[in-house]
Protein: Transport permease protein
Amino acid sequence: MTTATSPGAAGRAVLKAEWRLFRREPVSLFWVLGFPTALLAVLGSIPSFREAQDDLGGLRVIDAYVPVTVLLSMIMAGLQAMPPVVTGYRERGVLRRMSATPVRPSAVLGAQMGLHGAAALGSALLSLAVGRAVFDVPLPRQGLGYALALLLAVAAALALGALVSALARTSKAASAIGSAVFFPMLFSAGVWLPVRAMPDALAHVVEALPFGAAAEALNQAADGSWPGLAHLGVLALWTAALTLAATRWFRWE
Structure:
């Protein structure tokens, strides 16, 4: 006598299995969870970065880089960590074989997005905690607005990663496409130059991109204001557009 497996139970089983595999990838865990905080620690060890800067409105460089490292974890998760895993499953025929079982291939994609999203959020909280405890960076004064901007930024990063996974046929192609998009997204997030320190013309262009808008939304919430509706709207529109494109082009085999 056989017992049918419910979709919910199958989904939970997939999540547990993917979590075990995820824990066994120390390199991915480091780049998503450890590297952004390590970068923050390195930057904070530079004495001049702990001094107020006129071009940052009296903020210190380390103050401006906490939101940057928060976004860095999301970019790493969405573009570098997740796409090679998903495309590797498709390349090896795992998703095709799963389509003949009670476990739908979509459960794997959902588990991967959930795990990488949770890791990115965990890294963001770690950056905030280290910034506060080690470098006396104030915590966001508008907590609810900051949380909303964080969630929208994670959604945009995962949607972008899903699109890369949809377009790439192999894990090597996913790494190549992800790297091609990775560096422009780093620039828009302010890794090399914080968005608030950019010239106005460049800042307006960057703010039309998902992580430029996210950087400004996080900055506004950190300063105590509700994130601008324009920045939140840019994030929501990018997330919707990327999700639709990923859904349109994604193939299970």
